[in-house]
Design brief:
The chain is mostly helical. It has helices at about 1-10, 15-30, 40-60, 80-100, 115-120; strands spanning about 75, 80. The protein has a two-stranded antiparallel sheet with strand order 1-2.
Length: about 120
């Protein structure tokens, strides 16, 4: 959704295309017969987005030039600007949260019925 909304509001660029495609792949893998791949996809994408977000945040920090590291403007089509780093980190952590959640077990109720021998 972030990629589509940003692409519609502005113009589509590599950032919005990557966000849109990863989100679309997540939706496809999360529904129907492909849902067994959804958890692995969430973990994989969550690790990538979280790592890039944290890397970008650390790269943007500069305490007298000792902590900041030189990074390119974007990695894998994702911008490393400060605002985008925060968005990538939140998206990554949210995806990791979905990937680590346990599957919901269906609730079942068993009702014992009296058999014919115990009724008489």
């Amino acid at each position: 959704m972030f990629g589509l909304v940003a692409g519609i509001a502005t113009k589509f660029n590599t950032e919005t295309i990557v966000l849109s495609l990863t989100g679309l792949a997540g939706l496809i893998l999360g529904f129907g017969g492909m849902s067994r791949f959804g958890r692995g996809y969430d973990l994989f994408i969550g690790l990538i987005f979280t790592a890039l977000g944290i890397l970008g945040i650390v790269g943007a920090l500069s305490l007298n030039g000792k902590l900041g590291i030189g990074l390119p403007a974007e990695i894998a089509g994702l911008s490393l600007a400060v605002l985008y780093n925060l968005i990538h980190t939140v998206l990554g952590l949210t995806s990791l949260n979905h990937g680590f959640k346990t599957a919901v077990a269906p609730t079942t109720v068993a009702v014992a019925t009296p058999n014919a021998a115990s009724v008489s």
